[in-house]
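A reminder before we start the practical. When you read a complex entry, don't treat the lines as separate problems. The point of joint prediction is that each chain is placed relative to the others, so the output describes one connected object in space. Small molecules and nucleic acid strands, if listed, are placed in the same frame. In the example below there are two entries. Take a minute to note the order of the lines before looking further.
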Amino acid sequence: MTHDSFEISQDVVAQFETQQGVDVRFLKAGDAGTALNKAILSKDQPLADVFYGVDNTFLSRALEEGIFEPYRSPLLDVIPQKFQLDPGANALPVDYGDVCVNYDRAFYEQAKLQPPESLADLPDERYRGQLVVENPATSSPGLAFLLATIGVYGEQGYLEYWNALVANDALVVNDWDSAYYGEFTLHGGTRPLVVSYGSSPPAEVYFAETPLDQAPTGVVTADRSCFRQIEFVGILAGTQQRELAQAWVDFMLSTTFQEDMPLNMFVYPVNPNAALPAVFSEYAVIPESTAELSPDSIAAGREGWIEAWTGVVLR
Amino acid sequence: MNSNRGSLGGPTQRPSISRFDPGNLLWILPLAFLGLFFFYPLVQIFSLSFARSPGSPLLPIAATLRSQETLHVLGFTFGQAAASTLLTLMVGLPGAYLFGRYAFRGKSALRALSGIPFVLPTVVVAAAFTALLGPRGWINQGLMQFLHLTTPPITFVNTLAAILLAHVFYNTTIVLRMVGDFWSHLDPNLGAAARTLGASRWRAWTNVTLPLLAPAILAAALLVFLFDFTSFGVILLLGGPRFATLEVEIYYQTVSLFNLPTAAVLSLLQLACTLGLTIIYTRLAGRLSRPITLRSARLTQQPLRTWKERFGAGILAAVLLAILVSPLAALGLRSFTRYGSAPRGQAVEQGWTLANYQQLAQNPQSSIFYVPPTAAIRNSLAYASATVFLSLAIGAPAAWALARDGRSRLTRWLDPLLMLPLGTSAVTLGLGFIVALDHPPLDLRASPLLLPIAHTLVAFPFVVRSLAPALASIQPELRQAAAVLGATPRQVLRFIDLPLVGRALLVSAVFAFTISIGEFGATALIARPEYPTVPIAIFRFLSRPGAINFGQAMALSTILMVVTAAGMLAIERMRIAEVGEF
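Here is the predicted structure of the whole assembly.
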């Protein structure tokens, strides 16, 4: 059971199926939040054996509701501690991605302007009317970006920062599609700065209409400007096929799946032994440091932060 | 629920065709369906939601209903729905007149075109409007070139105007079809007679034609209003973050905050409003409906004769085309456009290309969820056919029961209940399915059957509302005459009712078909990934970065438009060949 954005190659699934002599059935249950809600509401009669796709912004909800049973996969030993946010090993990290501001290279070259380097640059007069962000109430990158600003400026300072962004004519839209394909200059909009992912530049190269030798977009990464989303997998409590479920979780952490993932979902593998595809190692940007917030503090703060943000930005 | 009130069923002053009045039996199937797939899941999810509230279940109710925020959202939801409905009627009624009263070349093409918006998923409509009216849309680009401006003169996205325009774009076809079809069967001699008797054109219209049309207008207005009232995608994508309807707030409370008690209260509030509106509608409709003689469209329609008529028709058609077809055209054009994203010199470099269509047939990562466009179309058509079948099977008996016993107490109770699915939050019902349908033999949570069932819940109120006015207007004398002449109930159905309602039957089939083929919200929640529909495939492309992905989404949307238009034209043809013209 997983969310809309899950992708996997046919031969990778086939590999697992022949190894285990079983058929794997996938169930996509809407966006990440909806899929998790469905897993929670069906926990007495689980719909599947394994659930993949809960991220660190939703992790506390999943753990509190007890939808997973713990499984300490042997592969956890190779996975860096920083990704293992659940010490009980109910939820195991699979991949990560960074939500960052992207800029349109051509726009800044043409305008002979230095693109912004960190969050601190965005309220600058030079970037007036250039940024489009997503609404944290309705969009997952929107929430991640709000969390990045809270991580950097703290609960005391983030609203002031947002006031400055609003004063600098930042635009808010409800979802990533509208921001990226509607407002971003690269795809015909009028704003050269957009909240998207650190892996969007390789995607732009990979999905370009004409071959490119440079990514058309850059990423703003300095001084913890990005928020890191980590996605987890877990065995749904009450599964009838515990052993197969364990095998699947191991499979997701193995290099076979981890190397297939980047070009399918445009996320990074947590397994350091997994080799990155060329387009990733060449064009993807992994920030040196990211804004840090624990899943518990996100769960506790989410509603209040979004409401306060709405009060400042939308009213 | 379906049997204990049966004895109250309907006045029997009409000489009954047989001693046993089958009218009440007609309710069994629709009520069983609604009970199982609508009320039962809702009751389950609501009770589970309230059970999760920490204190008394009354607390969230009081808190939510008293909050300023709720009042504000409720007010906005009503306001935008009322404004959108009025605008839709203003655009749709003149169009319905044109379609109902005149026969002209290109009419069926225009009708089919006007139906396309209805099937487009909101992500596509938002993209279409952005391609037309966005900051770099065709119109803004044209104006900037023409007037030598440096900034786009029109701001569209994130405005109330965008919401209203998109609602008109979506729902005008409801008015065109429901009112237009009814109009085409009204005897024009009635109005002419009034004029001969000295009534002015205006008086003839307000005193004769309008009252006769009223049931159809009211039914169309109710459906349009309910669609606007529960609007989600349009508000989210085109209205932007400053506007929230109840449905948007329910989604936020459920998905983002997992605040189920509050979400349940809002969901109930939305249901209560829907129920209130439909009760008002039922009362009004009961008063307005009257048996009249329906005429064949061939007898009521005339060609455009004078230049004045031609000119008027031309203007009307032009307005309809501008509102309904220009965003579609912008979308189609966009699917053939290449935005060179190479970073040299110009920021946006345009050219024509077929690459977006060629790419659709490729699966570079051999993803297991890749679907060739032909397979997506086949899946969509299969689900849509199942929906047409189900919603007619369930809607037709309900409509017939309503038409037979329009004034009985049973009917007056049941009628508003039939419309409730339209006023239900998709998120709430989707979760309801998960918690309710989890025991064999009803463990349908992962069944491919769940999708046509969910689509039928939305489609069948349309079937009921399009069929009931036509059925109700059949004069009882016709049935009686047939019965007196020895016709069996089956023969009455076959030779009296069916020919008379054939056209309405086809209209409802078109609605069911289009609702299913374009539906995205529920589909995304319950579709099996191995059988994705076209809207699901479009969304898959739109949620990843990269020029090719956006291009492919536009190409697939264009294919969806073409398939729909072809489907609707085919149904229009079918009507001429078979029961339509009587």
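Discuss with your neighbour: DSSP finds 24 helices and four strands in chain B. What might explain this?
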